[in-house]
Amino acid sequence: MAEPHNTPVPGSTPRATSPVGFLQQAQQDHAAPKPPAKPRVLHLGDRIRFNPGTFDALSSRFQVVRPSTPERQRPQFAAALRERRWGDFEAIVRPFWDAGGEMGRWDAELIDLLPPGVKVFASAGAGLDWVDTERMGERGIVCCDGGSASADAVADFSVAMIISTFRHLPWCILAATSRGATEYRDCHLMAPERSHNLRDQALGIVGMGNVGQRIAIRCRHGFGMSIHYHDIERKSSSIEQAVAATFHATLESLLQASDCVVLCAPAGVGSGTIVDASTLAHFRHGARFVNIAHGALVDEDALVAAMDERRVSAVALDVHADEPHPHRGLKRLAGHGRAMLTCHNAGGTVETLAGFEELSMRNVMAVLSGGQALSPVNLGHLKDQGTLGGAGRASIMRAHES
C-alpha cells in the first residue's frame, strides 16, 4: 500500500513540446475530457497502520493529502491554511490520538482558516474537548470522535479500578514490593478488615452511555453489584432491565445511594466540574470514587480534602486535570496506598487503536458520499439545525450512544 505524504495540489497537465505533439495532445484532450478531480481529504498524523483495506478504499475515492510533521506545527499549519497549500479539501481525518495534534487546540483561529467546503472533521479518541465543536457546527462541519471504538477497553479498565477501591490493591502492591516485612505482615493482617466483596455493593454510574452501560453489564452480571445511574435523560426500560438499574433524577440522589461512584460523563468545552466540594458533601461516608472520564470534571483539591477527612475512603483515577502532572495531594495518597493513579491508559489497547483508525476513515467516506456520519458529536450545533438546548451540568452529561 502506497500512502501519499504531503501530496501537492495537482497542477497543470504536462504538454508535449513539439507543435505536432501539442496538436495531438489538444485533440486528445478535446476527444476525451478529463474526469473531475477527486475531493481532497487532509490526513493529520501517522500513516495508516491497522486497516490498509479501508485506506485503499478511501484513497481510491478521494485524494489524500498528508502534511509532514513540521507542517503540522501551529504557525506553519496556520500559514499553510491561509495559502491554501493543500487546496480546497473537504474533510479532515486524524486516525490516531497520539499523532496529528501538533497544531494544538482547534479554536476559532484555525477553524476560520479552513476552506469553505469542509464537511467533516473525524478524529480518533473519545471526546473532542480540544475542538470548538460549536464553531465547527456553525461552519457546517460535522465533528466525529472514536469513543465507541474504545468503549470495551475503558469498561474493562474501569472494572479493575472499581475492584481496586474495594480491595485496596494499591496498599497491597506497595506493601509487597517497596516496603519491608513488617509492612507486608501489617497489610496481610489489616487489609481484610477494610476490604469488601463487590456483590451487593451499590455502584453509581454518572453518565449511562456506551462506557457506562458496559461497566454496568460487567459489574451486575460478573460481580452481582447493584446498579444505580444518573444521566440527563433516562434510558429505555430495556437498558435498565438488562442490568436491573435504578435511575436517579439528580446527581445528589445517586451519590447518597452509592458505595462506589464511577464518572463516565463526556466533557464539553467550558463544561466545568461535576465532582467538587458541593457534590462531595453528598457522598456516603467512606464511599469510593473512580474517574475514567476527564480530569477537568473533578475539583482535585476538594477530592483530596474529602479523602483526608475520610469521607472518601479510596479512589482510582485514570485521568487528571493537569496531565501529565497528577495532583500532588493525590500522589501523596497513592504513596499511602489509598489511591490508584494511572496515566490515561483506560482506552489504550491495540484493538482500540485499530478501531479509532477504521472509524475515522469510515466517517469521512460516509459524509463525503452524502450519507450520515457514524459517530457525530455536534449535530445540534450544525448551522441548519440550531443549537443544543440546556447549559451547565446538562451540557456535559450527554453520553455518546453507538
Question: What is this structure, in a nutshell?
Answer:
With 402 residues, the protein is of the alpha/beta class. Helices cover 39% and strands 12% of the residues.
Give descriptors for this structure:
Rossmann fold; alpha/beta; 2 domains
How would you sum up this structure, described in words?
This protein has 402 residues and is α/β, with parallel strands linked by helices. The chain has 2 domains: 19-145 and 352-390, Rossmann fold (3-Layer(aba) Sandwich), CATH 3.40.50.720; 151-341, 3-Layer(aba) Sandwich (Rossmann fold), CATH 3.40.50.720. The chain has 16 helices and 12 strands. The protein has helices spanning 19-31, 52-61, 74-83, 108-111, 133-138, 147-167, 169-177, 181-190, 210-223, 237-243, 251-257, 277-280, 300-308, 328-335, 350-368, 393-396; strands at residues 40-43, 63-65, 91-94, 120-123, 142-144, 202-206, 226-230, 246-247, 260-263, 287-291, 312-317, 339-341. The strands form 2 sheets. Strands 8-7-6-9-10-11-12 form a 7-stranded parallel β-sheet, with helices on both faces. Strands 2-1-3-4-5 form a 5-stranded parallel β-sheet. Strand 3 (91-94), helix 4 (108-111) and strand 4 form a beta-alpha-beta unit. Helix 6 (147-167) packs across helix 9 (210-223). The longest helix has 21 residues, at 147-167. The chain starts with 18 loop residues before the first helix and ends in a 6-residue tail after the last helix.
